[in-house]
Automatic annotation (TrEMBL), chain A:
CDD domains referenced in this protein's UniProt entry, alphabetically: fer2, MopB_CT_Fdh-Nap-like, MopB_Formate-Dh-H
One GO molecular-function entry: 2 iron, 2 sulfur cluster binding
Domain 2Fe-2S ferredoxin-type, first and last residues per copy: 17-95
Protein species of origin: Novosphingobium mathurense
Name of the protein in its database record: Formate dehydrogenase alpha subunit
Record lineage: Bacteria, Pseudomonadati, Pseudomonadota, Alphaproteobacteria, Sphingomonadales
Record carries keyword Membrane: no
Record key words, sorted: 2Fe-2S, 4Fe-4S, Iron, Iron-sulfur, Metal-binding, Oxidoreductase, Repeat
Keyword Iron-sulfur annotated: yes
From TrEMBL, chain B:
Pfam families: FdsD (PF11390)
Naturally occurring in which organism (per UniProt): Novosphingobium mathurense
InterPro entries: Formate_DH_dsu (IPR021074)
Annotated protein name in UniProt: Formate dehydrogenase delta subunit
Organismal lineage: Bacteria, Pseudomonadati, Pseudomonadota, Alphaproteobacteria, Sphingomonadales
Amino acid sequence: MTFTREKDFGTPAASGEAVSLTIDGQELTVPAGTSIMRAAAMVETDIPKLCATDSLESFGSCRLCLVEIEGRNGYPASCTTPVAPGMVVRTETDKLRKLRRGVMELYISDHPLDCLTCSANGDCELQDQAGAVGLRDVRFGYEGENHLEGCKDESNPYFTFDPAKCIVCSRCVRACDETQGTLALTVDGRGFASKIAASQDEDFLSSECVSCGACVQACPTSALIENTVIEKGTPDRAVVTTCAYCGVGCTFRAEMRGEELVRMVPWKDGKANHGHSCVKGRFAWGYARHNDRIVNPMVRGSVDEPWREVSWEEAIGHVAREFRRIQNAYGTRSIGGITSSRCTNEETFLVQKLVRQGFGNNNVDTCARVCHSPTGYGLKTTFGTSAGTQDFDSVQHADVILVIGANPTDGHPVFASHMKRRLRQGAKLIVIDPRRIDLVRSPHIEASHHLPLRPGTNVAMLTAMAHVIVTEGLVDEAYVHERCDRDAYAEWAEFVSDPSRSPEAIEELTGVPAQEVRAAARLYATGGNAAIYYGLGVTEHSQGSSTVMAIANLAMATGNVGKEGAGVNPLRGQNNVQGACDMGSFPHELSGYRHISDAETRALFEKDWGATLDPEPGLRIPNMLDAATDGTFKGIFIQGEDILQSDPNTRHVAAGLAAMECVVVQDLFLNETANYAHVFLPGSTFLEKDGTFTNAERRIQLVRKVMEPLNGYADWEVVQLVANAMGLGWGYTHPSQIMDEIARLTPTFAGVNYDALEQRGSVQWPMNEAAPDGTPMMHIDHFVRGKGMFVVTDYVPTDERTGPRFPLLLTTGRILSQYNVGAQTRRTANVDWHAEDRLEIHPHDAENRGVRDGDWVSLRSRAGETTLRAKITDRVAPGVVYTTFHHPDTQANVITTDFSDWATNCPEYKVTAVQVTPSNGPSDWQKSYRELAEASRRIETAEPAE
Amino acid sequence: MMNTREHLIYMAGQIFRNFASRGEEAAVSATAEHLVLYWDPHMKAQALDILDDPEIDLPEPVRAVFGKLRVAA
Ligand code: SF4
Ligand code: SF4
Ligand code: SF4
Ligand code: FES
């Protein structure tokens, strides 16, 4: 396969009326607003350029792209000159060639002539353009004043800035401003003295740079270049695939040199990311070939023994025998499985099929249990389907953006960049979050209202906003009348109107001034198209499902569902949370969110699978662990999920796992859960398999294999091996066949298949006869459930209360550079940004406790104790502390309790009553756990048995 | 920490409290319906055992919910 760069049209696409013109004798018609440069590129005439690239607005600084226009004087820059009707343009004349050569000579006279040894040789626009303008000689010589001695900045672990190679085209500066929205770069100085500087002329690592890579991608030379290209050389082939980190679902060109990945370059045609990326997807893929990866299956008799490497055959045979033995001894329902939101749709579908068809029960759950299960419940109840209403692009039409319980700049960075662009254009922002997240104030962005509520009071807050909207007559009556269930609305309106639910009445509870709440509610209801984006700060509460429904109520009351720029949008954490839920990973429902008790749906599957399905719902993860400690649940298959680290109340999880007789973990690394496992089946990375992921906007995208799996099998193949060892007789030879089965059995996926995905790049479900092109926006003319259902959401305070022993509220979150339990990102240079979890504490609370910045502190709740270092900041309010949970040493979940959402058991991660005291070392649990973890990871060095 | 029985009683009570604004009777029905839809058979069976265990001092609404569950079973 040959390597071709993505075509660069020089300036962004326009969308005006059709305009006809002539370029070099060729007639063409393009949308008004198109630059001459872009129009020419559309008919394969590439005008030389340096400062222009189609991901950025034109700038017009290099003067290389000059053209002649009939009837106009001079030589206008084609990148900044829009087309006009009847225009006649010439792009190649002797005069133009001479002018361009002159420009190029100036650039080259101040550029090192080391092309042959330059890392970008063959992939450099300056080199290409020098060729394109026919430069043969530099009349000015190379002896004059120049920048060739500039010092390299190698501080960033992923890319290098070499000022000697810089042509000061400012593409990087504009990329940081326009694409990323961080505004970390400037052109420092003027004229010849001008140079590129990060923040206040700091090195990249210490600057505000968030290492998104947009500048590197925009740079036409090797001034900004990926370190992997310096090390490995330029790529020779590229495969488009989908990021396996977060729910934004950025697509990338995996640029390869042979079997080696050289770099991941965000794909311009990616509908979720439009050519942008964050530090994780762009750079943090080194874990895929990390030495810690386990590539051989392993078995052990008990968790005290060292691991023994065995053949696949032996491992799979052992799993099948053990599961059948346990079922014979303890009953059909004594085993289960957990699907992974990290794996593909096809893989999660197979794991739940293994459980339902092979285990003969519905004991299947997924890590979405601990993040977005309330979204499933809440949106299904109110709107009729468990998914966000819009595509990401819809945010470009929003006038008011309400962000609640989400921190998009860290959790969903690429979407945050799109959102920030809209905010810079003037959309208004409301943030409801206990913490002052970055969005509240960042360059050129300031939230109109930040409501820093006490953790655990979301429902009271949203109901108070509803109170304002209803009592001040701001309801979109016509919409509600036409689109929603009127009785339910009347009941809800009466409920929220009660004075006890006014902002004034709940002020003391939430800690937010009533006037701010009123102002925010008015803005949301009257500011134009209003969109709500929410995250785990909504769902991971004892009233997570109620909060989701309260959000849906607000959106319906103001007519903000079913149109552009509005809607209710859950920001999904992991790459395939949406997909894992869609695929029937929950114990009570089959794919497409159909309840297992529905005989008709069951019959469909039973016929296809040739098995009788259990009509009763199965166990959720926390209930599996309860049942394990009770002695009724004895075996589990866990794919790509580290429940010991990610689930609440670690001791409870540990006790549950320790009580089982066969714990099978399939993962890339010996994760924390594997400390309690009896069988370890090595997993494969997203680079090693084919399949699909579904992102937060219901967009199904292809994951393409770019290298062979180190462990020998893609994860779906491993599940198939287990299934067949249990006698199920599956015969898939490619994941596309699994998708065909999903489509056959799931009405919302009926039109989805790999050919359609190849042709269209991506599709958004529902895609079926009624929606042959998929569905970017849902509920347009009517709600999926028919009439929108208002639900009364009474505020029920959590039972997790502060008191004299535990006076502070702990809430948790994540940071840009790390990803969830950190299994991947901790094995990359991303640790340069976040080497440990820290406890954020307000200066007052720190002072009261004699805690200084950087001190070790003990963090205690009624569930347990851990230690970590303190970070003193007023980002958190007094009385609230905050930490991330990316590092196993911190064991933040030793602290979290087993309280959970009333409807779905999604854990209440966001509220734990704690005490913080100075400390000088790890807690007893941390010490004993460390010993156990070390002992449990021993591997016997014997040759694998054949 | 709660044992499994305490946990089941707690969960049923918590679900009931979230439906309580509908009035006692409707909330009991809604809670029982929720358990039918989301609890696995073993959990439901344990709820009925709890109901029959004279040693357990069951909060009234939870007793009513588990009672309804028995009727549904
Ligand atoms: S670093 Fe690259 S993109 Fe930035 S000004 Fe220099 S040459 Fe242009
Ligand atoms: S990597 Fe991203 S944030 Fe950093 S300077 Fe470049 S564009 Fe800006
Ligand atoms: S925003 Fe999410 S999907 Fe996109 S590159 Fe970053 S981690 Fe990957
Ligand atoms: S490309 Fe047009 S002025 Fe630089």
